[in-house]
Amino acid sequence: MAALWTSADAIAATGGTSPCDWAANGVSIDTRSLRPGDLFVALKDVRDGHDFVAQALAQGAAAALVSRIPEGVSPEAPLLLVPDVLKGLEALGRAARARTAAKVVGVTGSVGKTSTKEMLRATLTGQGHVHAAEASYNNHWGVPLTLARMPADTDFAIIEIGMNHPGEIAPLARMADLDVAVITTVAPAHLFAFDGLEGIAQEKAAILDGLRPGGIAILPAGLDVSDILLAKATETGARAVTFAATGADWQIDRADWGAEASAVQAITPAGPRLFRVQSPGRHFAVNALAVLASAEALGADPALSAQGLGRWSPPAGRGQRERITTDPVADEGFELIDDAFNANPASMAASLDVLSILRPEDNVGRIRQGRRIAILGDMLELGPTELALHAEIAHHPAFASLAIVHCVGPRMKALHEALPQGRRGEWVETAAELLPRLRALVDAGDIVLVKGSKGIKVSLLVEALRKLGQARPQDDKGTE
What we know:
Oligomer: single chain
CATH architecture of the largest domain: 3-Layer(aba) Sandwich
Helix content: 25-40%
Structural class: alpha/beta
Function: Involved in cell wall formation. Catalyzes the final step in the synthesis of UDP-N-acetylmuramoyl-pentapeptide, the precursor of murein.
Family: Belongs to the MurCDEF family. MurF subfamily.
CATH class of the largest domain: Alpha Beta
Pathway: Cell wall biogenesis; peptidoglycan biosynthesis
Protein name: UDP-N-acetylmuramoyl-tripeptide--D-alanyl-D-alanine ligase
Number of domains: 3
């Protein structure tokens, strides 16, 4: 197998220098996940990566990208010396993109970026060599890292692009040099950095600045800000393909919204299209429209794309469903929906919709009546109207089907106070405070949603709920 980066290629890309020849098969920024043969990139973040270069080399790193010779490391060691490590990583990313004939799709949006990226990965797998971002590597170092890891023989690349502040998306999109750009939706998120939804739409639309001439923009229709997205497509010369709303190029005609999966017939420019999403929730089906439209724009086979899409299910932290078996003898337990990675008003509504259509199990456990339970943590970075946005969740129609709602975080106190007395559960300021009482709050037969922004750490509750029993994916029915 050819090396991902030789010292000669890396020097040509970055303009750096190296005292010796080396070849790397991967790129890493973390010694905890570094594999032998990786190029270690000594980024400066919370810690200075230069402090870990000696360790990385001892673990078998092929070389290290540095801006100075670290203390305790020989000048003759395999180092790629550049003036600035992040700019060096960006240069590797641009060079990796330039040397491949891959079709590249960029994904952004207020909600659903990572799920859409993973849907695309599943959809394109088997139709060529697919390269995609790991986890949510979508920021100023995540995008160049994903590009720098891209093998030269890649056929399809999927790049997730996020933002927290204005001006972040366009440079990353230009670096990725996109053939197709997807905007999943525009919703209130990161409002602390923007004047309103229009500002968020303009920033999301900036992904179109990274499209190659003749590129295709996959855009959500029916939003209050859809005109801003379409205007940007016209400005950049992109061909706009719309999805989601009635009248869009790709729209849902009929659907069976099952508790285990969604079967959809879509209206498309090429005629009716049937597909299946192995997860409940209209939002996943709508994102699937964007995925199939993107796959078609990339030249993928429609039938194989639909088959690949049908193999996708939500990953941990983003709506993954698990059965927690609390009594293996009686085969009793509860269902856990792990959506603890991120939250804003739009994704919160989507998760509550999913919870509302799932059916608890009666005649098991202490209570004998299965319940829908939500444990909701703060939605962060919503700006000056954050308390009102939290309180408004109480008006969501899904609450009529919930038995009880527990709230975590200072902002979620606004929702707790807005809930009707009968559904108002516990309120705690931190997730850790709920841990001692967690066992008493759930019972066999229940369906428990845990949702919140990553910073509020409701993932601690997910892990604690798993430890109440034996976890297995919802689609694993066992071998009995």
